[in-house]
Amino acid sequence: MNTDVRNGIPAGQLVRAGWRKSSYSGKEGNCVELAQLPGGTVAVRNSRDPHGPALIHQANQMAAFLNAAKDGEFDELPG
Fold first, then answer.
1. pTM given for the model
2. What DSSP string runs through 13-78?
3. pLDDT per residue as tens digits for the range 40-61
4. How far, CA to CA in Å, does 67 sit from each of 41, 43, 60?
5. Average pLDDT, the chain
6. Count of CB atoms within 10 A of residue 73's CB?
7. CA 76: distance to chain centroid?
8. Torsion (CA) 46, 48, 51, 52 in degrees, nearest 10
9. How would residue 62 be classed by pLDDT, with cut points 50, 70 and 90?
10. Long-range contacts for 7-10 (Cβ within 8 Å, ≥24 apart)?
């Protein structure tokens, strides 16, 4: 794997990343996929653009985001 993992890296360069998406994802391909990376970071990409940019977050940041989503903190956003 490329050792220069930075925010916005082309997701296609993360060749060993084990991308996962939610079982709630639709068949239209409009999903967000996550991959745990070495060093305690998590990559996020758009499933419709698997070679496009990946956003890189610290694991604790991603955990805080996911917990907020589970707690309904984003329920008022259009969706």
1. 0.81
2. G-TT---EE-TT--TTS--EEEEEETTTEEEEEETT-TTSEEEEEEHHHHHHHHHHHHTTTTTTS-
3. 899 999 988 999 999 999 999 9
4. 17, 17, 10
5. 88
6. 11
7. 22
8. -50
9. very high
10. 7/55, 7/56, 8/53, 8/54, 8/55, 9/43, 9/53, 9/54, 9/56, 10/51, 10/52, 10/53, 10/54
Tokens of 35: 């991959």
| 24 vs 54: CA distance, rounded Å | 21
* CB-based contact 60:15 (threshold 8 Å): no
Q: What phi and psi values does residue 4 have, to the nearest 5 degrees?
A: -95, 65
Structure tokens at 52: 């496009």
Can you tell me which residue has the tokens 């060993």?
A: 16
